[in-house]
Recover the amino acids of this structure.
């Protein structure tokens, strides 16, 4: 799954409108016009071939753009956080340092929707897979921690499917 595909699935699961998507990108520090949004939310024919995506007027969502969207989503759902002295104005981007996109997706959506671990386990159950608290904890850990586990596409896909079931009733 590439970042564009994750954005498409997240948008569908949470029933986000185009104006909300543009606002979320803006809150994350990325300017996206309403005309460019459909180009981002178009699934590339072959996600392994980057050249095809460029030729077809699609905009490839890179890791920086994706993480900015997730940061904007947290701000959109929870409001602007008051700055503490010495804290940077914008959160430091972690995906540039090879962090797993799927792990970041789980963490940021959990924060944005103010979910507990039980809520997340329930979402996985709705998608039809059983995840233990230990496995979930390993997925939510910081990269480099001894119990950190990389989140595969299957987990991310099922999480987004469970979100759709919960928020859209499907």
């Amino acid at each position: 799954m590439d970042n564009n595909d994750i954005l498409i699935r997240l948008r569908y699961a949470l029933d986000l409108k185009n104006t909300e998507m543009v606002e979320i990108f803006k809150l994350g520090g990325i300017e996206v016009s309403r005309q460019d949004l459909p180009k981002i939310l178009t699934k590339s024919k072959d996600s392994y071939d980057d050249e095809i995506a460029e030729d077809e007027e699609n905009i490839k969502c890179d890791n920086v753009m994706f993480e900015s969207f997730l940061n904007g989503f947290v701000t959109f759902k929870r409001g602007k956080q008051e700055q503490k002295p010495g804290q940077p104005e914008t959160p430091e981007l972690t995906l540039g340092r090879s962090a797993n996109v799927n792990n970041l997706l789980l963490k940021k959506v959990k924060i944005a929707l103010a979910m507990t671990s039980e809520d997340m386990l329930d979402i996985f159950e709705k998608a039809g897979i059983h995840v233990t608290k230990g496995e979930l904890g390993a997925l939510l850990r910081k990269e480099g921690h001894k119990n950190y586990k990389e989140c595969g596409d299957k987990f991310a896909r099922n999480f987004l499917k469970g979100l759709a079931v919960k928020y859209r009733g499907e």
User: Anything to note?
Assistant: The CA atoms of residues 37 and 150 lie 29 Å apart. The radius of gyration is 16 Å. Confidence is low (pLDDT under 50) at residues 47-55. The chain is about 55% helix and 0% strand.
